[in-house]
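Holo prediction. Input below; ligand is iron/sulfur cluster.
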Amino acid sequence: MPRQQPDWPTIRILVAQPRGFCAGVDMAIAALDRAVTLFGAPIYAFHEIVHNTSVVAGFEQRGVRFVDDVALVPRGCTIVFSAHGVSPAVRAQADQLDLQVVDATCPLVNKVHAEAQRFARRDRAIVFIGHPDHDETIGVLGEAPGRITVIERVDDVESLSIPDPSRVAYLTQTTLGVEDAARIVAALKERFPDIEGPASEDICYATQNRQTAVLTVAEDADVVVVVGSVNSSNSKRLVEVAASRGVRAHLVDGPGDLRPEWFDGASTIALTSGASVPESVFATVVAAIEQVYHAHIEQRGLAEEAISFRLPIPVRVPAR
Ligand code: SF4
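Structure of the complex:
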């Protein structure tokens, strides 16, 4: 981006609150950090610990090896499961290799696994609303192989083949767009009036809060910039949610992705970040915009979140 000039206009920056790290990401990063400190490199992590390039690169520099196949981990080593969760088959494979497991699965993802197990025990066909290639979806599918069908869109409901429509249940990925998911659930209920759902909402508090916050700032913005990596489901949903209100919305992994032409004619820019994005990365994007414009920054949105999750037992510090 070009550097600021004295006569350039002031631009208003609306910063969404809450944004960035959720409790699950916070816990997973702290768990991996502590595992490296306690056990020393190399530490293995099954999948990216969270879907953010700067976080992953930082851990790689400290000797963490990210693998997508547990078989690549030498017998007896330490492996950290990512926030997105794993299937029972992956756990069994880790056991067979005598791996020390640090399970950093977010408790809210574990809740979805428990629901899948419960519906499977009750002999229900399960419709999982989610993205087929996402680590979270793959982990949940492993809870009841052959029983779960993944759908992504309202149109997918019509083509579903359910053996007994009176014995069907649905679950959702934790990081879906709230409004899109509601439309799909409504279509499922119309086609399968007896369908059962989770006891409480599967789309997590952090996803919901960040989507509500981005809508709040998007209302008054000419353009929305979401900081997040391209493989971050919740970050991409923030872009879609903002764009659903007719606002131009862009995803950037860092300041290098900003394009000056996005801001042509804009007087207000809204900024937010996905649940896996460190505040330090978000700050570099704000700083890059401030180098170009005379920026007036306002925080706007919901109250601060006050949720935290305990570290996994192998890396929990004993009480003194
Ligand atoms: Fe957990 Fe939600 Fe964060 Fe995913 S986005 S790690 S489900 S709190």
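The first helix runs from residue 23 to 39. That is the main takeaway for now.
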